[in-house]
Every structure is written in C-alpha cells, then in structure tokens.
Amino acid sequence: SVKNPFIPVFSELRTMEPLLMTQDLVMVDEPDNVKYAEKLSEKGYAVVPVRRRPPVGKYLDRTTFPRRILFEMTSNCNFLCRMCPQQNLKRPRMDMQGELYRKVIDEIDRYGIEGIWLYHLGESLLHPEFRENLRHVSTKKNLGVIWMSTNGRYFDENNIRAVLESNVDYINFSAHAVTEGTYNTVAPPGNFQIVQSNLKKFYEMKGTDNLPRKPFLHCQMIEQETTKHEVDDFIKMHYKKAEIVSINMLEYVNLPNNTYGLQ
C-alpha cells in the first residue's frame, strides 16, 4: 500500500528506472525489483514507470517461423492522425479476405508464437468481419500475448462486448488528448466526444475496481508538439482506470510531422 500517494510529473517519470513486470502485469519477484518497489511505495508514488519483460520460452532459437507477428486484417483507417505513417502510406488500403485471415491464424496456431498483434497501420474495427475474426482468434491456444488496437471511434458497446468476451490480452486505445481542441490537432477527422464516450463505456463495462485484469487497457497518447502540454493531465485522467497509461514518442519514425520526436 502507498501512504500519502502523489502523481509525479511526467518529466520525472520519464527519467526514472522502470519497475519490471511480467506480460500479465505481475511484478517480477526479484530482490532488486522488489526492493525498488518498496522504495517507490515508501515515497508515495501513485504512478510509476514500468517495463514488461518480453515473453521467453521455447521459440527463442527458432529460425524457421516468426516468433512474433503483426497481422493486419485491414490497412484502412477512418483517421489520418498527423503523426501516423498512414499519412505516407504507399501500399493499397484494403481488407484482407476474412476467410484467408482465419486460415492464416490456423497456421500460426499450429506453429505457435509468443505474441500476435491483430493490427498494424489500419483500424481493425473497420474490417467487415472483425468480430468473426476475433472469435476465431479466441479459439486458439498457441498465439501467445494477443494485442488489438483502436482509435476508439467504432469501439461501441457491441464491439466492446466482443472484445471482453475474447482472449485478447491488451487493448491499445489511442485516446490522444484531454481536451477537444488538442484532440482535433491530432485527428481532425475524428470525433472527440464519441471517442471519449466509447472509452467511458469500456471503463463501465469492464469495471475499474481490482485491476489489473484482462483485457488490459493500454491508454495511449503520442507526445508531440500539439499534445505535450496535456501529458500530465492525461496521466491524471486515466491512471486509476487503465492498467497502463502510455505516453509514446515516435522517435524512430522519420516522417515530416515527427520532427519533435526525432529531436
């Protein structure tokens, strides 16, 4: 338990040593890590930086099949966020045929992997067979850690229920901002009110007591020129509801709208 908890500013958090966690968000039970956790607790940190240990196991030395797979069911997206590679996408925007997607999932499951991401640059909820694909994924046992991602626009009650009933481990929810004005600088085609309403509905349907529990919510904003002033408020807004509040920087994406991240 933390006495007199406080939320440190992000400029401090980003320089701190991370607390080590498993992929199931259990603290790594090693003496130095436990001692560090006790130190943070004594100081009253209500929010701490974490680093998840990568999954390890029988696939480490495999050379004949991938250990991890980003498996994009659609390259379509309803947003063109200012910092996103969608702005510079050269390949066609299209849906993978649902039957083919599920067939590939079958093959991946036969080999077994340590993690799969059901997206890349597209918004998976736009796929016409998203729920069917998700149900199929949820029948498999050898896909490792399962991630999905959404910008929230179509993460309505029906899709939320489908995800809550699935075996998805992590949901990456790109909430982007605290205020509508800032949000509109990131995702001009988006709808801040609908996205926030859907996020609120997810919190209600999943529940925010006794966290963490799957599917873990990874509530994300990208730190950039137009959002950096809202980072601390973003953490305060979500830290009691989401398992992880993620402040990301696209420092490895060499795109025109990412000069801040590159610097």
Question: If you had to describe this structure to a student in words, what would you say it looks like?
Answer:
With 263 residues, the chain is α/β, with parallel strands linked by helices. Helix content is 31%, strand content 13%. The chain is built from 9 helices and 8 strands. The chain has helices spanning 10-13, 31-43, 98-111, 130-137, 157-164, 180-186, 192-206, 231-238, 259-262; strands at 19-21, 50-52, 68-70, 115-117, 145-150, 170-174, 216-222, 244-248. A 6-stranded parallel beta sheet has the order 3-4-5-6-7-8, covered by helices on one side. Helix 4 (130-137) links the parallel strand 4 and strand 5. Helix 3 runs parallel beside helix 4 and helix 5 (157-164) packs parallel to helix 7. The protein is globular and about 55 Å long. It starts with 9 loop residues before the first helix and ends with a helix. The model has no long low-confidence stretch (mean pLDDT 94).
Q: Helix and strand layout, with pairings?
A:
Elements: H1 10-13, E1 19-21, H2 31-43, E2 50-52, E3 68-70, H3 98-111, E4 115-117, H4 130-137, E5 145-150, H5 157-164, E6 170-174, H6 180-186, H7 192-206, E7 216-222, H8 231-238, E8 244-248, H9 259-262
Parallel strand pairs: 1-2, 3-4, 4-5, 5-6, 6-7, 7-8
Short summary:
This protein is of the alpha/beta class. It contains 9 helices and 8 strands.
Helix content: 25-40%
**Gap between N and C termini, in Å?**
38 Å
Q: How would you write the strand order of the largest sheet? A: 3-4-5-6-7-8
Net shape: globular
Order of helices and strands: HEHEEHEHEHEHHEHEH
Query: Which percent range describes the beta-strand content?
Result: 5-15%
Please, what is the average pLDDT?
A: 94
